[in-house]
Design brief:
Elements (H helix, E strand, L loop, with lengths): L29 H8 L3 H6 L11
Length: about 55
């Protein structure tokens, strides 16, 4: 399944259910996220399904 869990329990600010998030970009860089996930950035970027909305900025 195309699911992800993000632990926000130690986030420095209040987060609401409809808050916008950046999963990877300039900070954190996709390579850093991949290292924490024990994979490579290629896997994170190419295995996205068509279901999530993508907004390119």
């Amino acid at each position: 399944m195309d699911m992800i869990v993000i632990d926000v329990s130690t986030a420095p600010e209040d987060i609401a259910l409809d808050s916008k998030v950046i999963l990877w970009g300039d900070a954190p860089h996709v390579d850093e996220v991949a290292a924490h996930a024990g994979t490579i950035s290629y896997e994170l970027l190419c295995r996205l399904s068509i279901r999530p909305n993508r907004i390119q900025v």
